[in-house]
Specification:
21 strands; 2 domains; disordered C terminus; alpha+beta; five-stranded parallel β-sheet; binds flavin-adenine dinucleotide; about 30% helix; FAD/NAD(P)-binding domain; six-stranded antiparallel beta barrel; Helicase, Ruva Protein, domain 3
Length: about 450
């Protein structure tokens, strides 16, 4: 006979990681209760990918890890246990068909993030997971060594031998991720590393950014340095805002600022013409100047820069705007070339958690077993998703962290009523995995021949 209390697995948090953990634990034969404080599951998922939810990235393993910023090695086992291909398979088999877009980003074919949550809801229902909404957990109970249950904010107690904490980080707190998991982990003796916003816009010292508000620069190269140290270099798109800069390049750069307290020592250098060497650019400017030699300098830059940027370039070049182009000296032209190749901005700081896509920092991975996601301190306590000190770049990598760690935590839970090996054990159940394991070959076969659309599966696993 199953000892229900001890065998019961409670998952705290019905976001991406929690839904996946509950699905995997239920598939592992455990009675599962999924507790979510919001009125619905997956509240943050609804706003991901601008409502389209970039569920994962279809890249190969090596590229996946290149896109993980904090503690990539800790993720090896989790990604091995449940990688991007398995996630695609799982979603399609549960009715959420997928498509792949630029940069190997994978989205629901419908462009509706709600389809992802619906797929999980179907699966959880089929596997008998008890989903309790409006159920905020206040405290995790232990007997000092192992888990005994949880206490909700209304005072009710749910006995359990396993608790999986999947409460998310601190960003976009209106979605429910308010750091409860960090507090609960600390109360149980876990170290929580400093948390800072990441994938977040940056504030700059230059107040003329305001003038450029709304200007988007495409195909530029951005380098971020701190003293002599290069922290980030990327190519793509960025945007000026009233406080500084944003857009994909800047968000990625922000993740490499790390936990530096003095963000203002960081400098952003934009190469506005990365396809041209300095010499090529100088020739190009010379050509433009030849064609416009009798115009005023301020009216000769339309071919080089977007209209909004011209006045700032003139100001920063120090060249008299009223000057005729043929009067611009070689030295001045040289300055303009250099400015175009290295347009700098001084970073003052990051925007806050309310604008951050992700939280950097969280439950220290040093105290969590990477092969099971179980705490090394308390038996039966597991962590999954953004609550952990793990984060990646944009492109579906953060959700894949949630799916992989959620799966590994859920599939690792053991029957607490049976004898269990010591805490730092490594084996994990493969039952759920074995049912949805598929080879690269049959993955291709299962994928629809329809262009850019992933294949349809049955609605079970
Ligand atoms: C605007 C935005 C867009 C994004 N777009 C993408 C994207 O397209 N692709 C991508 O890969 N990543 C994206 N991300 C990041 C991604 O959403 C997160 O990495 C991911 O949701 C983390 O999942 P999680 O389950 O760990 O945490 P969350 O999704 O935050 O879920 C945690 C859940 O726990 C619940 N909870 C918290 N405390 C308690 C408690 N005490 N009791 C009960 N329940 C509790 C919360 O209500 C919440 O539902 C985006 C993030 C934002 C903010």
């Amino acid at each position: 006979m199953m000892n229900i209390d001890k065998d019961q697995a409670v998952v705290i948090g019905g976001g991406a990681a929690g839904m996946m953990a509950a699905a995997a634990a239920a598939e592992n034969g455990r009675p599962v209760i999924l507790l979510e404080k919001n009125e619905k599951l997956g509240k943050k998922l609804y706003i991901t990918g601008k409502g389209r939810c970039n569920v994962t990235n279809a890249c190969e393993r090596d590229k996946f890890f290149e896109n993980i910023v904090s503690n990539p090695k800790f993720l090896y086992s989790a990604f091995h246990a449940f990688d991007n291909k398995r996630l695609e398979m799982f979603l399609e088999e549960n009715g959420c068909y997928l498509k792949e877009e630029r940069g190997e980003r994978v989205f629901p074919a419908s462009d509706h993030a709600s389809d992802v949550t619906a797929a999980f809801e179907r699966f959880l229902r089929k596997r008998g997971v008890q989903v309790r909404l409006h159920s905020a957990v206040r405290e995790i109970k232990t007997d000092g060594e192992k888990i005994t249950g949880v206490i909700l904010v209304d005072g009710s107690v749910i006995p359990a031998g396993t608790v999986i904490v999947a409460t998310g980080g601190l960003s976009y707190q209106s979605t429910g991720s308010t750091g409860d998991g960090h507090r609960m982990a600390r109360e149980l003796g876990h170290k929580v590393t400093d948390c800072v916003p990441a994938l977040v816009p940056l504030e700059t010292e230059e107040d003329w950014c305001k003038k450029l508000q709304g200007l988007s620069l495409k195909n530029v190269s951005l380098t971020m340095t701190c003293g002599k140290k290069k922290l980030y270099q990327g190519f793509g798109e960025m945007l000026f805002t009233h406080y500084g800069v944003s857009g994909p390049l800047v968000l990625s750069a922000s993740s490499y600022l790390g936990k530096r307290k003095v963000a203002d020592v960081a400098v952003l250098t934009i190469d506005l013409k990365p396809a041209l060497s300095e010499e090529q650019l100088d020739k190009r400017i010379l050509r433009d100047f030849e064609e416009n030699r009798n115009r005023q300098f301020k009216n000769a830059l339309g071919g080089l820069y977007p209209a909004k940027l011209i006045s700032v370039m003139i100001e920063r070049s120090g060249i008299d705007p009223e000057k005729k182009v043929h009067e611009v000296t070689k030295q001045e032209r040289r300055r303009l070339t250099e400015l175009t190749k290295a347009f700098t901005l001084q970073v003052r700081g990051k925007r806050g958690f309310e604008e951050a896509v992700i939280t950097q920092g969280g439950v220290s991975v040093k105290e969590v077993n990477p092969s099971t996601m179980e705490s090394k301190r308390i038996r039966g306590l597991y962590f999954a998703g953004e609550v952990l000190d793990l984060d990646g770049l944009t492109g579906g990598f953060n959700l894949q962290i949630a799916w992989s760690t959620g799966y590994l935590a859920g599939s690792s839970v053991k029957s607490a009523s049976k004898d269990v090996p010591p805490l730092d054990r490594t084996p994990r159940s493969t039952r759920f995995a074995s049912q949805i394991t598929f080879t690269q070959e049959n993955a291709k076969v299962r994928h629809s021949p329809q262009k850019n659309q992933k294949g349809r599966g049955s609605d079970g696993i």
